[in-house]
Amino acid sequence: MAAPKDTTATATYGDHEVITPENKLRKVVSTGPLMPGEVHPVTRAERALAALSTEFTSWMESECERLDKARQKISEGGFTEANKELLFHAAHDIKGEASTFGFPLVTAAADSLCRLIEYTPDVTRIPLKLVDQHVDAVRAIYREYSRSDAEDLAALLTSRLRAVTDEFLIHENRELPDMLEQIKGSSIVAG
Amino acid sequence: MVRIDFNRLRFLVIDDNAHMRRILRTLLHGYGAREVYEAEDGAAGLEAFTHYIPDIIITDWAMPIFDGLELTQMVRQPGANSNPYVAIIMLTGHSEKKRVVSARDAGVTEFLAKPISANGLYQRIVNVVANPRPFIKTKVYFGPDRRRNANPNYVGPERRKGGKADVIRQAPLLEKVRAPG
User: Where are the domains of chain B?
Assistant: First the structure.
């Protein structure tokens, strides 16, 4: 059987080429309303995720344990590159997953720990007490999630952590204007 | 509405976190996808890309061995693999401007900041399938056109130079999506 005719086109200009690859994925696209009784794919996916959510509390528990173990590694062996990566990845995963797992109040404390690690030029200067406070805050917010005042507790803990962290980061980066700009910059991405 | 026949798409999910891989697989199956492959780091992801020839890669940024950004740079090598045009959706907890620009400059097709949502991922997939952008190749960049929109109010020099285009046919690079039946 002959190979299908390719329709990729390349337009060559002075210092660049514009390539329009053959869009074979176009064949999976159509337009039209949902059929009677048909469920939108997003709704189906949300339902599938809801069915999976019975696992989320144990997953959050294991992520908090992972963060605690990473903290212990640093307490015992200091801020080596490997230990730093362990702690950062553990915090970063919690930052990204906590909302999906149903614990959005945990996100800000994990985010503050990520910022602390990522924006400190020499991580060995990070006070271990500040690391401990972040890890303890993450675990406490998760542990006390069912309390009626959990939101206030989380807001109090994370705002204080963030303020102390920002103060430390601004001091540590005082000679680095590009870093200061990043520290003060905000996200530009919508979820 | 735009409808996607998910069961004719092949996905590769690359994330070192098993929980996130499970969530992504659940969402993709929920949309109707059947073929979802997984890899737990950048190296395994590159191997899986070569082996499975996915239509869409969904990759985390922060991963061991090499990260999602490095993986993207390795995939976006014209002539070096079976499909350098593959759609790459970068899913990450990083959302700072510098990070987004780095991902864009590596050749990522779409960027999705965590926390993930069924609708957010669905919209990115619809966009890469239904509205693919042309690719730009320069001395220092190969990837989807980074100019998503023409800005009529832009003031400044035109950085792309050149006159009238020559149109050249190229050999097929992807033979993935089969016709019905």
Answer: 6-141
Domain locations along chain A: 50-184
ipTM: 0.87
In CATH, the architecture of A50-184 is Up-down Bundle (1.20)
Half-sphere exposure of A64 (CA within 13 A, CB side): 22
Q: Where are the beta strands (DSSP E) in chain A?
A: 9-12, 17-20, 29-31
Q: What is the pTM of this model?
A: 0.86
- Cβ within 8 Å, pair B175-A27: no
**What is the topology classification, in CATH, of domain B6-141?**
Rossmann fold (3.40.50)
A22 touches chain B (CB under 8 A): yes
In a mutational test of the B interface, the residue from A5, A7, A10, A87 whose CB has the highest number of chain B CBs within 10 Å is A10
Chain B residue closest in CA terms to A6:
B172
Using the beta-carbon criterion (under 8 Å), do A44 and B31 form an inter-chain contact?
A: yes
Least confident window among A15-29, A130-144, A176-190, B41-55: A176-190
Q: Is the dihedral of CA B52, B110, B174, B7 positive or negative?
A: positive
The closest alpha carbon to A174, from A113, A119, A117, A109, belongs to A119
